[in-house]
Amino acid sequence: MPELPELDVLAENLAARLAGARVAAVRVVSVAALKTFDPPIDSLAGLAITGAGRRAKYVWLELGELFLVMHLSLGGRLALGPKPASRKVAVLTVELDDGRVLSMTEGGTQRRAAVWLVDDVEKVPPLAGLGPEPLDPGFTTARLAAILAEGGHTLKGMLTDQRAMAGVGNAWSDDVLHRARMSPFARPERLDEAEVERLHAALVGVLTEARAALAQQVGDEVVIPKASERLFAVHARAGAACFVCGDTIRSVWMGDRETSYCPTCQTGGRILADRRRSRFLR
Fold first, then answer.
1. Which residue has the higher pLDDT, 107 or 30?
2. Please, what's the b/e burial string for 210-241 (b: 16 or more CB within 10 A of its CB; e: otherwise)?
């Protein structure tokens, strides 16, 4: 699923390429994805796109007083081209008066992409319960410490819980923990002051650097940049060598998600046991 760095770049690209374009027609291909009915989706026809934005894993187009909010889910993408995407993968298409078509698509079988048309983004129910974002100016070390003190999760679980902090998911949390030299199974409420400061620096550093690197990948079409294996430090690199110490990167399953880590950098050399087969090592 696209996360904060990818969607930040996407929102910036949408704003740059679509500002001023006027909507000719909107076609909902996947009716189940449309979560609102008032105002009707047809009310976008004739309106000009005035900007774009992002919050957590949601991105939207601004059209005057209306907001077309999209959640791309795991297999979602946005593409801008001369013709709409195939109906096999299309969720929504926005035809512009200059002949371009913005297509929201979703691959795979889960089909969890969602669309809302609202006059206030806070009216999108999932957005109301989100936590602060790590790149917000107010996200200080003290704010992070207060979140971690709540406990109730592993450290990996806390980083990816959108109610605790928003925008970080399975992929970038792996790299944040690697940069911070912390086990994904560490208890967040047990971190000392120095560890919290290290984690805060890792969060801000990894996400800022990722966003800058991904911005260089966007071409003429509006697409979500995809982090390459080389851009990731450990995520999805199990079996490869750690760029920092040279140890072999390992992976372990936490629930239904695969977590990548470096034993030398993060767990004192210990190999974490897979929770699906045995009790894990802390």
1. 30
2. bbebbeeebeeebbbbebeeebbbbbbbeeee
Q: What value does the mean pLDDT take over residues 214-237? A: 78
Cα–Cα nearest to 148, from 172, 180, 124: 180
Closest CA relative to residue 68, chosen from 49, 86, 84:
49
282: pLDDT strictly greater than 60: no
Q: How many angstroms separate the CA atoms of 279 and 282, rounded?
A: 9
Reported as type and span, the H/E element at residue 26 is: strand 23-28
Task: Give the residue carrying structure tokens 């210990």.
Answer: 270
Lookup: tokens for 183: 């086990």
- Share of residues in the chain with pLDDT > 70 (%): 94
Q: Are 225 and 162 in contact (CB under 8 A)?
A: no
Rounded to 5 degrees, what angle do the CA atoms 97, 100, 102 make? 110
Question: Residue 142 class from Cβ within 10 Å (0-12 exposed, 13-18 middle, 19+ buried)?
Answer: exposed
pLDDT tens for 125-147 read 999 889 999 999 999 999 999 99
Integer CA distances (angstroms), 246 to 122, 181, 202, 235, in order: 46, 14, 20, 15
Residue count of the chain, please give it.
Answer: 282
Which residues are tagged catalytic? 2-3, 57, 257
Select from 79, 93, 60 the least CA-distant residue to 222. Answer: 79
User: Within 10 A of 37 (CB to CB), how many other CB atoms are there?
Assistant: 8
Q: Does the pLDDT value for residue 281 go beyond 70?
A: no
Any idea which residue has 């003290």 for tokens? 142
Q: Closest Cα partner for 223 from 1, 3, 7? A: 7
Whether residue 206 has pLDDT greater than 60: yes
Residue 13 gets which letter from DSSP? Answer: H
